[in-house]
Automatic annotation (TrEMBL):
Pathway this chain belongs to: Amino-acid biosynthesis; L-lysine biosynthesis via DAP pathway; (S)-tetrahydrodipicolinate from L-aspartate: step 4/4
Protein role: Catalyzes the conversion of 4-hydroxy-tetrahydrodipicolinate (HTPA) to tetrahydrodipicolinate.
HAMAP family in the record: DapB
UniProt-listed Pfam families: DapB_C, DapB_N
PROSITE patterns assigned to the protein according to its UniProt record, in alphabetical order: DAPB
Keywords from the named record: Amino-acid biosynthesis, Cytoplasm, Diaminopimelate biosynthesis, Lysine biosynthesis, NAD, NADP, Oxidoreductase
Positions with a binding annotation for NADP(+): 34
Residues that hold NAD(+) according to the record: 8-13, 97-99, 121-124
Protein name per the record: 4-hydroxy-tetrahydrodipicolinate reductase
Domain Dihydrodipicolinate reductase C-terminal stretches: 127-263
Gene that this polypeptide is encoded by: dapB
Keyword Ion transport among UniProt keywords: no
Localization of this protein: Cytoplasm
C-alpha cells in the first residue's frame, strides 16, 4: 500500500482526512502544518480527535515531502502551489482539492502535471460528480427555454465564492449548451437589473453557520421547474473521495487527472 501524506493537517479537511485514513487503515506516514507552527510534534490522531496514531505533525519543507509517496492537499491556493513545487522536485504524486484558484494558478497546476501525476477536483464526492453529468442531460433537454441558476450554500468560514463546485456545474452546463461560461455567467444581482437574459447562467452564493456544502442547479421554465440538488452532510465524504484518488494515483504517469476518471464516470453521458 502506498504511503500517504496530508498537507494542512490542521484544517477542517485536514482533520477529516486523518479521520478517514484511520478508519480505512491506510498507510498515513506524514501530516504537515505550517513551517514554524506550534502544533509541530502534536500527534495527528489526537489533533483530529480520533486517538493517538503515533504520527507527530511536522512542518512542511523540502525534507518532510520525502515522508510519503502520495500527498493530499486541501489548504489554500498560495500554500498549495508552494507544496506543489516541492512535490515536483521530489517527484511525488498529489491530490488537490483546493478551490478558488485564479486562471494563472490553475495553469501552474497544469504545468506541474507535465512532471508528476495530479488529481485536481473542486469536489471529491460521488454525488457531485454524478450531478455534473445529470445537469448536462437536463441542460440538453430544457436549456434552450429554461432559465438556469446555480445556487450554493457553505459555512461561514469559506473564503472563496462562488464555490469551485458551483463553477464546475456552470462549466458542465455551458459545455452541454455550447455556451461560453465567461460570457454568460451572472454572479449575483442588485438594483434595477432589467429582465433576465435567457442565455445567461446565474450564480447565487449563501454563506452561514456550519453548512458543509449544498449545491442546486435550477432549470426554471414557464409552468415548471427542475431542481437537481446535492447536499453534503459530512466532510468525511470529500476525504473518502480524496483518499480514493490518492490510491488511484499509484503508478500513474504524469498528467492532470479528474475525479470523473478516478470514479470511472468520465464516459457517462
Ligand atoms: N475538493 C473538495 O472536495 C473540497 C474542497 N475544499 C476546499 O479545500 C480548501 C480547504 O478547505 P478547509 O479545510 O475548509 O479550510 P481550512 O481553512 O479549515 O484549512 C486550510 C488549511 O490550510 C492551511 N493553510 C492556509 N494557508 C496556508 C499557508 N499560507 N501556508 C501553509 N498552510 C496554510 C491552514 O493552516 P492553519 O491551520 O495553520 O491556518 C489549514 O490547515 C478550500 O479551498 C476548500 O474550498 C473543501 C472541502 C471539499
Ligand atoms: O470550502 C468548502 O467547505 C467546500 N469547498 C468545495 C467547493 O468550493 O466547491 C467543495 C465543498 O462544497 C466544500
Amino acid at each position: 500500500m502506498p504511503s500517504i501524506g496530508i498537507f494542512g493537517a490542521n484544517g477542517r479537511m485536514g482533520r477529516a482526512l486523518i479521520t478517514v485514513a484511520k478508519e480505512q487503515q491506510l498507510n498515513l506516514t506524514a501530516a504537515t502544518v505550517r513551517a514554524g507552527s506550534e502544533l509541530a510534534g502534536v500527534d495527528a490522531g489526537e489533533l483530529a480527535g480520533v486517538g493517538k496514531l503515533g504520527l507527530p505533525l511536522i512542518g512542511t519543507d523540502r525534507t518532510s515531502i520525502n515522508n510519503a509517496d502520495i500527498w493530499v492537499d486541501f489548504t489554500m491556493p498560495e500554500a498549495m502551489l508552494a507544496h506543489l513545487a516541492l512535490a515536483v522536485v521530489a517527484k511525488k504524486a498529489i491530490v488537490i482539492g483546493v478551490t478558488g484558484l485564479t486562471d494563472a494558478q490553475y495553469q501552474q497546476v497544469q504545468q506541474a502535471a507535465k512532471h508528476i501525476p495530479i488529481v485536481w477536483a473542486p469536489n471529491m464526492s460521488v454525488g457531485v460528480n454524478l450531478l455534473l453529468h445529470l445537469v448536462q442531460t437536463a441542460a440538453k433537454v430544457m436549456g434552450q427555454t429554461a432559465d438556469i441558476e446555480i445556487i450554493e450554500a457553505h459555512h461561514r468560514f469559506k473564503k472563496d465564492a462562488p464555490s469551485g463546485t458551483a463553477m464546475a456545474i456552470g462549466a458542465s452546463i455551458a459545455k452541454a449548451l455550447d455556451r461560453d461560461l465567461a460570457k454568460v455567467a451572472v454572479y449575483g444581482r442588485e438594483g434595477i437589473t432589467g429582465e433576465r437574459e435567457q442565455q445567461t447562467i446565474g450564480f447565487a452564493t449563501v454563506r452561514g453557520g456550519d453548512i458543509i456544502g449544498d449545491h442546486t442547479a435550477l432549470f426554471a421554465d414557464l409552468g415548471e421547474r427542475l431542481e437537481i440538488t446535492h447536499k453534503a452532510s459530512s466532510r468525511n465524504t470529500f476525504a473518502q473521495g480524496a483518499l480514493r484518488a490518492a490510491l488511484w494515483l499509484q503508478n500513474k504517469q504524469p498528467g492532470l487527472y479528474s475525479m470523473q476518471q478516478v470514479l470511472g464516470l468520465a464516459d457517462l453521458s
